[in-house]
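User: Sequence recovery, please. Input:
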């Protein structure tokens, strides 16, 4: 597994707590000579202490380039228990042990510590060590764990296009709603809050929702469906625009304007709002997701709408007066 913070070997919970305590104390003000000596004695008492201290220093530096609730708690509440817990969590989750992999699967902060991620408005290509190809869509994150028995890719948020390499080990793709097992497949996986959507372009994919007790469903080539933790919807033919995002395009075929803007809004920062008066207007065409400002200008030409820009980050599409 590729640790998000290039972690050293495992760091125990007790040592992590000690390192966090020292960091919080230091950032509260200069240490007294007595406390400075105590810190130096702690630091040099064991190699694990030095690994923990070096690692948490790196984490603290990198947090300043991140935007998340966890980073905010770790940086902006120097005297609170939330800061202490956030720093300890980051130190432990970055340690790279089998225990922390299990924690990373369960905690809501996992996108922050993902092995691979893409920011809003960008896409990213990743080649895994088995030869599999992963393309991440905007604001997406995955964790990867390969061992001698299996290969596991966990989609933490967003969307990915996976081309699975052939390997003697089974490949499992996990989302918040279930597990997929591709068979030499090429598939698109998108995770929503209440469901996961998959589209299979090549190969076959076995699907098992988390709380489903029956047999797995085999999703065949050129099929797509959505599923939650309990069940799946009936498979249907691929939509014309399935996977078009990988080429930087958003395909609309008689799509409601509100739905179109929700999709376009994924590729830009800030709020992109739709006036309810024009929400049901229908739109068709192929649009570049990397130039959302141009797309909005095209909408004002082709539909009875106007684009109201309060700032670059707060835009509303409303009825033309």
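Assistant: Recovered sequence (321 residues):
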């Amino acid at each position: 597994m590729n640790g998000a913070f290039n972690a050293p070997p495992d760091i125990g919970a007790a040592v992590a707590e000690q390192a966090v305590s020292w960091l919080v104390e230091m950032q509260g003000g200069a240490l007294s000579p007595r406390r400075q000596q105590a810190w130096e004695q702690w630091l040099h008492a064991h190699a694990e202490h030095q690994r923990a201290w070096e690692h948490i220093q790196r984490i603290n530096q990198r947090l300043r380039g991140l935007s998340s609730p966890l980073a905010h708690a770790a940086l902006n509440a120097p005297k609170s228990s939330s800061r202490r817990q956030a720093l300890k969590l980051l130190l432990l989750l970055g340690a790279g042990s089998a225990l922390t992999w299990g924690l990373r699967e369960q905690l809501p902060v996992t996108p922050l510590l993902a092995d691979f991620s893409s920011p809003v408005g960008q896409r990213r290509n990743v080649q895994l060590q088995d030869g599999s190809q992963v393309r991440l869509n905007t604001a997406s994150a995955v964790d990867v764990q390969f061992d001698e028995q299996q290969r596991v890719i966990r989609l933490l948020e967003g969307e990915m296009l996976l081309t699975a390499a052939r390997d003697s080990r089974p490949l499992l793709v996990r989302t918040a709603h279930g597990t997929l097992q591709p068979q030499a497949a090429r598939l698109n996986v998108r995770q929503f809050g209440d469901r996961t959507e998959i589209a299979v372009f090549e190969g076959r994919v076995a699907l098992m929702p988390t709380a489903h007790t029956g047999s797995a469903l085999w999703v065949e080539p050129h099929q797509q469906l959505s599923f939650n933790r309990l069940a799946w919807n009936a498979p249907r033919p691929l939509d014309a625009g399935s996977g078009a995002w990988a080429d930087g395009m958003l395909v609309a075929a008689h799509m409601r304007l509100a739905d179109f803007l929700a999709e376009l809004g994924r590729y830009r920062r800030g709020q992109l709002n739709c006036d309810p008066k024009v929400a049901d207007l229908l739109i068709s065409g192929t649009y570049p997701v990397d130039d959302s400002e141009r797309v909005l200008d095209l909408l004002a030409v082709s539909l009875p709408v106007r684009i109201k820009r309060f700032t670059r980050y707060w835009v509303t599409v409303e009825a033309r007066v």
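Residues 1-9, 64-80, 95-100 have pLDDT under 50 and may be disordered.
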